[in-house]
Amino acid sequence: MSVEARLAELGITLPKAAAPVASYVPVVVTNNMAFVSGQLPFIDGELVTGRLGEDVSLEDGQAAARACGLMILAQLRATEIPLDRVERVIKLGAFVNSTPAYTDQPKVANGASDLMFEVFGEAGRHSRAAVGVPCLPLGAAVEVDAIIALKAD
């Protein structure tokens, strides 16, 4: 089954790829590897802001991380990389805007990780870092970046 068909089967519609908010490009492809810049969580066109452990629940944090994962896929598509070229999701980096006492960053990051497995199956299983940070750009609750191996053209 194609990835696009899998997305349809799951009822997933990818958002419009967000424009960069600073001096960088969303995706760099080299040697059949795609490096996707950190993506922020947009749900229904609105940026999810706030801090885990303060004013954002675990469930809302997971939804925000999932939204970041959807934006990663949207950025690949916007770069005209067919999602069927994804050979393997190598690594996700999840940055969670959280209070110093908050320790559930890995659970928050599961929102993006679980999405990759849903969409790509075993090829979506990846290594990962889930890090708590004191703030993120634009006050975002979560930011996720990715390294993805691509099948040769």
Automatic annotation (TrEMBL):
Among Gene3D superfamilies, the record links this protein to: RutC-like
SUPFAM superfamilies in the record:
YjgF-like
Please state every residue range assigned to the domain named Endoribonuclease L-PSP/chorismate mutase-like.
Answer: 4-142
**InterPro entries reported in the protein's UniProt record:** Endoribo_LPSP/chorism_mut-like (IPR013813), RutC-like_sf (IPR035959)
User: Could you identify this protein by its name?
Assistant: RidA family protein
Provide the organism lineage as a comma list: Bacteria, Pseudomonadati, Pseudomonadota, Alphaproteobacteria, Sphingomonadales
